[in-house]
DNA sequence: CAGGAAACTTGCGTGCACGCAAGTTTGCGT
DNA sequence: ACGCAAACTTGCGTGCACGCAAGTTTCCTG
């Protein structure tokens, strides 16, 4: 695995993107979405407001991106944690259930934030669902080729059982994929 | 006093300049001047080697600049600390003496570094003497106009008495300046 | 509902950071 | 003394960050 190291420019770009996401989420959690100015996020991330809009084309996108990124890494981790011999179907459902049952630091609050605010919800649905990317790559790694699966899961009174039920319909698709 | 705040670009430029100076001095003190690569300084400051040479045109300049900057601020502080009623002559000599007698953290080591290494000495003398700028501004503030004074003081076995002696010739010039 | 202020988003020109490649210096081993 | 290798310095082209100004949205107030 040649760990292709990106050059300095690339690293800095990623760093400011992450700084912006992080700052946006933190501020939104601290004082509520309505009280966060673009200038505040930019300042907290150490860049100009103009630069914010070079990375995100709306005020909400950064917040959504932050949550999305969090969940992407968590899903990837959860999938990687599954032993290889576990059937694909079970691995996927377990990984997703894991997210909703064992939340990280501000994960719950962030989700609440997004599901509460209309603008955030809209921005969230604009992005391809947060769970798609890491799942497809994980699945692709298991199988030989790339299949796409699209999941929309909005947690309303969510319990592990509810989740399993909601994910059950996917089982045949995943099985036939192999 | 309208504290004219420089814009973000300016602040960032100053920041990286300072980061470079700081990194250069720290590394030079840690491992000796000979074992410091330009790339190391740049990396420690978070910029590319190319950028180092946008700020300093030689490997030694950053180290020298670091010491120079340190001394500039210390001289400025020392001059500011003098009560206004103290005669100009005494204020200047006291400020300079203060530098050599009550050194800061790595001030001594830094000076030793510079006076030891030939390349550093050369680079140091290339820059207008470290003490000039803050002194002239301080003096200018006291008088109404701008006078220039050039001091070359290389501390060889320096003692307060030696310093006072060396600075004595300046007294008449400073007195007539008023 | 009209008017206006504050915040947002975007096009544009400028300046700095970067990577690259060429030319130069430095220091070392033979 | 010679040649080589590593490090340094600099010109050049490209891309990103910034400031600015214009157009738009949003929200509040009369």
Entry summary:
The structure is a homodimer of 178-residue chains. Chain A has 178 residues and is mainly α. The first copy, chain A, contains 10 helices and no strands.
What would you say this structure looks like, in words?
Chain A is an all-alpha fold. Chain A is 69% helix and 0% strand. Chain A has helices spanning 8-31, 38-45, 49-55, 59-81, 88-101, 107-116, 118-126, 132-142, 160-167, 170-177. In chain A, helix 1 (8-31) packs across helix 4, helix 2 packs across helix 3 and helix 4 (59-81) packs across helix 6. The longest helix of chain A is centred in the first third of the chain and has 24 residues, at 8-31. Chain A starts with 7 loop residues before the first helix and ends with a helix. The interface between A and B is small, with 3 and 3 residues. Chain A binds a DNA duplex (30 and 30 nucleotides) through helix 1 and helix 3.
Q: What's the structural blueprint in terms of helices and strands?
A:
Two copies of one chain form a homodimer.
Chain A: H1 8-31, H2 38-45, H3 49-55, H4 59-81, H5 88-101, H6 107-116, H7 118-126, H8 132-142, H9 160-167, H10 170-177
Helix pairs in contact in A: 1-2, 1-4, 2-3, 4-5, 4-6, 4-7, 4-8, 5-9, 6-7
The first copy, chain A, binds a DNA duplex (30 and 30 nucleotides) through helix 1 and helix 3.
């Amino acid at each position: 695995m040649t760990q292709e190291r990106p050059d300095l420019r690339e690293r800095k770009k990623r760093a400011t993107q992450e700084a912006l996401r992080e700052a946006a989420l933190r501020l939104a959690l601290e004082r509520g979405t309505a009280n966060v100015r673009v200038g505040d996020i930019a300042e907290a991330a150490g860049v100009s407001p103009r630069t914010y809009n070079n990375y995100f084309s709306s005020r909400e996108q950064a917040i959504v991106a932050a949550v999305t990124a969090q969940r992407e890494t968590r899903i990837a981790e959860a999938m990687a944690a599954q032993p290889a011999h576990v059937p694909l179907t079970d691995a996927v459902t377990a990984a997703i259930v894991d997210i909703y049952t064992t939340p990280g630091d501000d994960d719950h609050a962030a989700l609440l934030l997004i599901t509460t605010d209309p603008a955030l919800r809209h921005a969230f649905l604009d992005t391809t669902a947060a769970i798609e990317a890491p799942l497809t790559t994980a699945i692709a790694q298991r199988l030989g080729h790339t299949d796409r699966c699209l999941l929309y899961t909005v947690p309303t009174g969510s319990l592990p059982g509810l989740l399993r039920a909601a994910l059950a319909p996917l089982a045949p698709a995943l099985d036939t994929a192999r």
